[in-house]
Design a protein that fits this description.
With 389 residues, the protein is of the alpha/beta class. The protein folds into 2 domains: 126 residues, Peroxisomal Thiolase, Chain A, domain 1 (3-Layer(aba) Sandwich), CATH 3.40.47; 219 residues, 3-Layer(aba) Sandwich (Peroxisomal Thiolase, Chain A, domain 1), CATH 3.40.47.10. Helices cover 37% and strands 20% of the residues. The strands form 2 sheets. A 9-stranded mixed sheet has the order 3-2-4-7-1-8-11-10-9, sandwiched between helices. A hairpin with a 4-residue loop joins strand 10 and strand 11. The protein is globular. The two termini are 37 Å apart.
Length: 389
């Protein structure tokens, strides 16, 4: 069954905020600042927001409902997201359908985490019951060991070399240099990438995201509402999600994108060839390679990477034009929002860093909740340019 697209749904008021390696602020403070920045950017009052989609690892014991109370929001629609790096896509899908159905007028999509060292250690220790009970007792704590296995298996299947992963890391770092929110803004060479210390072979230092604090946000509303407010906006054309894909395979060969991308593009009316950028989830480079293949950009990502440029203005396939998490940092659940917010910026001319020339369409990928051998949740969305102020 081919899913239908979205009718006149707009994404506006993109916000990135407060990226820090360490912070004394709490998650509630970050979420409040994100909401205020969205309101200021849209020129609206808090009472006009009647929907909230929220993602956070460190907000507990509070959830979205408790945060709505603290923010003083009176809501008709509420979504509490617990899907990690897929949160932006899944939150957008639900917010968009609510707006289409008249269940909400304006939905604030917020994600933030105040991620100090102790917070990150607590997250890893209790990431899931599976990780706690079946992985940690055997010394496989945290995602590095999991992705080392997935990466090693991918390299063996495809003949991928560390230089191939490094090309993407270097390109993303180049994109990050102009982004004031990025925590890594020194140029990265392929030589430095290859010489970096090992973390969990074949992963080395620049293959692994750095946990940090920060937040990302945007608003979802009807396109007519965005036009009435004079807001530059992107349009949601189509989106997909898949959960527990390829569960029978020992080590993940692909993500759930491979099962839903074709129908997603069909619903959007545009395909990979019309995409002016890819904002891909990038906690580790192997996930980028999977998205290049699964989202229709390459039959063989390794060969595609070797012949393609990925810098924002290089004329190939602009990839993670804000720098991606590997250069910006991974602010917990906000890491999954980073690409969505950057996609909105590219399509509305509101970039804070590198601009893709005349961008009209783009695709955003999400990936979350990785257990021992695979990521449980995948999502993607196709965005198009809307009216500009």
């Amino acid at each position: 069954m081919t899913p239908r697209g979205y009718d006149g749904v707009a994404l506006a008021a993109p916000v990135s905020f407060g990226y820090r390696r360490f912070t004394l602020r709490d998650t509630q403070w970050y979420l409040a600042r994100l909401l205020k920045a969205c309101l200021d950017g849209a020129g609206i009052e808090k009472r006009q927001v009647d929907g909230l989609a929220l993602a956070s690892f460190t907000l507990a014991p509070d959830g979205a409902a408790a945060m709505a109370e603290q923010l003083g929001l009176e809501l008709r629609f509420l979504e509490d997201l617990h899907v990690g790096g897929a949160s932006a896509v899944l939150g957008l899908r639900r917010a968009a359908r609510a707006v289409e159905a008249g269940e909400a007028e304006i939905v604030a999509c917020l994600a933030a985490d105040a991620m100090g060292k102790a917070d990150f250690e607590a997250l890893i220790a209790n990431f899931s019951s599976y990780a706690r009970d079946a992985m940690h007792p055997y010394g496989a704590a945290g995602p590095n060991a999991v992705f080392a296995m997935i990466t090693e298996a991918y390299m063996a299947r495809h003949g991928t070399r560390r230089e191939d992963f490094g090309k993407l890391c270097v390109a993303q770092r180049s994109n990050a240099l102009a982004n004031p929110h990025a925590l890594f803004r020194r140029p990265l060479t392929l030589e430095a990438y290859l010489a970096a210390r090992p973390v969990a072979e074949p992963l080395h230092l620049f293959d692994c995201v750095m946990p940090c604090s920060g937040g990302e946000a945007f608003l979802v509303m009807r396109e007519a509402r965005a036009q009435a407010l004079g807001l530059p906006h992107a349009r949601l054309l189509s989106a997909m999600e898949r959960h527990n894909a390829f569960a029978e395979v020992e080590l993940q060969p692909a993500g759930g994108w491979a099962l839903g991308a074709e129908a997603m593009y069909q619903a959007a009316g545009v395909g990979p060839a019309e995409m002016d950028f890819l904002q891909a989830y990038d906690d580790y480079p192997v996930v980028l390679f999977m998205q290049l293949e699964n989202l229709g950009f390459a039959d063989d990502a390794t060969q595609f990477v070797r012949r393609t440029a990925f810098e924002a203005e290089a004329g190939g396939l602009p990839l993670n034009t804000a720098g991606g998490q590997l250069s910006v940092g991974q602010a917990g659940a906000a890491g999954g929002f980073l690409g969505m917010v950057e996609g909105i910026r590219q399509l509305t001319g509101q970039v804070v860093g590198a601009q893709v020339p005349d961008a009209r369409h783009g695709v955003v990928g999400g990936f979350g909740l990785v257990n021992f051998r695979h990521g449980v949740t995948c999502g993607a969305a196709v965005l198009g340019r809307g009216a500009r102020a």
